[in-house]
User: Fold this.
Amino acid sequence: MSLAIRTGDLTIHRIVKSEGPGGSALDTLPSLTPELLAENRSWMRQQKLLDENDQLITCIQCYVVKTPHHTIMIDTGVGNNKSRPGWPSWHMKTDDIFEKALNAAGFTFDQIDIVMCTHLHSDHVGWNTRLENDRWVPSFPNARYIFLRTEFDYWNELNKRSSVPEFVDSVLPIVDAGRAEIVGNEYQVADHIRILPTPGHTPGHVAFAFGRNKVHAVFWGDLMYSPLQALYPELSAKYDVDPSQAAIARRAFLERYCDTNTLCCTGHFISPSVVKIRRKGSGFACDFLQAR
Assistant:
């Protein structure tokens, strides 16, 4: 069994695909200067957020959340048999890492009853589907899949102009199978889950806030790749469709949850990945939930 995080009446499990160097800090964060990196290199290396070659140490993962009513998958990782030639480590994978991690957390594909995607990039939707008799079918046969309307429409329009592989193999088959719910930002699941718009990384990128009466945990997807972006919220990633909007959303999120007990479950921070936010100067610091 994997280590479970309990808060309020929620139980949270991390489903980890990989951890390690995830790209040059200066390349991933285009507005990061060599001088600013030099100012922060020591503490980042000490906390194992940066390696000796100035590569950001990151994680590919998703989460399973048990509420009193549901078993919910937040994002689904990279997936198997997916053609991703631009990402060699993701291309045509055939390993059992995801299934083993899911099983270690105490779950099977059949036990997930809701899948919620923060956005529709390939490392967040890959296990939405699996290949069965040369057809893409829902990996979680008993689940309804929640896609945000703004996000779905954005990728649908791009796909009409030129095929978007992750949309074709990991999103449209869910729609074709009748398992998709395409919803607005006001959508809620029971009294436990609410949507928090955080646009910029993609036009319909969202976070998910969990908790009855108060927010106990929030899942932020790709709002940030590194704690350095909390200290300097203006540092947007090269993957952000709208860097300025992403920076505004990031600061608003950090203001909202700083100096609270809310657990922030990150998309790409290295283990243990779950942090609390506190104010630090004109920016913010991420305090990891447990020692690494």
Notes: The chain has a mean pLDDT of 96. The chain is about 25% helix and 30% strand.
